[in-house]
Amino acid sequence: MWLGSGTILAGSRPLTALTHPSPNFGPRKQNARPDLIVIHYTAMQSAQAACRTLCNPENEVSAHYLIGEDGEIMSLVAEDMRAWHGGAGRWGAVTDVNSHSIGIELANDGYSPFSAALMDSLTDLTKGIMQRRDISAQRVIGHSDMSPGRKIDPGLRFDWRRLALEGLSVWPNAGQAGALDQFPMMMAQFGYTATDDADLLLDCFRRRFRPHAVGPLDATDMGMIADLAQRFPVDQSAAST
Question: Helices 183-190 and 198-209: crossing angle, nearest 10°?
């Protein structure tokens, strides 16, 4: 049952969000402030089913916002509180992602295209959060970015390019490709968890930046990650937000 609606700012205009408080939250630890936005998909058949899951105390999972297929925005946890959406993930030096982030769940089954209405609401909501919280575009990431090998959302159908064109995320240029064995180091410099599993890192990278690419690591991958690592070193960007 919806408990009401409220107004949040999306850029310079108001945006209405239905409120359905989830009990699954707590205070942000060590006085952390949100400096990341993490985008998820629900992997469920409807926004209503996802809302029931995110608001069930037995599930111990939540997000700050849930956006339905029709673009309806549901506010589940207040932005100044710690929602439970990040799990054991990390991004750069941040190991408690929940304390440092705002989580947005998108109603999507993981296979279907994201609706135009949903994407419009996401861009408006993200723009407002970034302005309110002084979060830079390089700090908008996917669940799969912070949890390589454990999570795959928001998935191959998500339009990261659109967010980048609207200044709400980043996109690589065709940089100068380096030696292939530098790929893990450059991925870590951009923010991904350091690991010797180059295939896993490549899958994470392509999932976001080259979703239709196949085959082994190549010069295009290297040029793109070299550009991202040079322009958006993760912990330097965190310190500047």
Answer: 50
Domains and CATH numbers, the chain: 4-165 (3.40.80.10), 180-240 (no CATH)
| Residue 66: φ, ψ to 5° | -130, 130
- In DSSP terms, which residues pair with 5 in a beta bridge? 18
Which sequence positions are flagged as catalytic? 105
Nearest alpha carbon to residue 23 among 50, 51, 57, 67:
57
Contact (Cβ atoms closer than 8 angstroms) between residue 154 and residue 39 = yes
* pLDDT tens-digit map of 52-107: 999 999 999 999 999 999 999 999 999 999 999 999 999 999 999 999 999 999 99
d(CA 138, CA 228): 9
Would you state the structure tokens that stand for residue 45, as one six-digit string? 């058949």
- How far, in Å, CA of 24 to CA of 15, rounded? 24
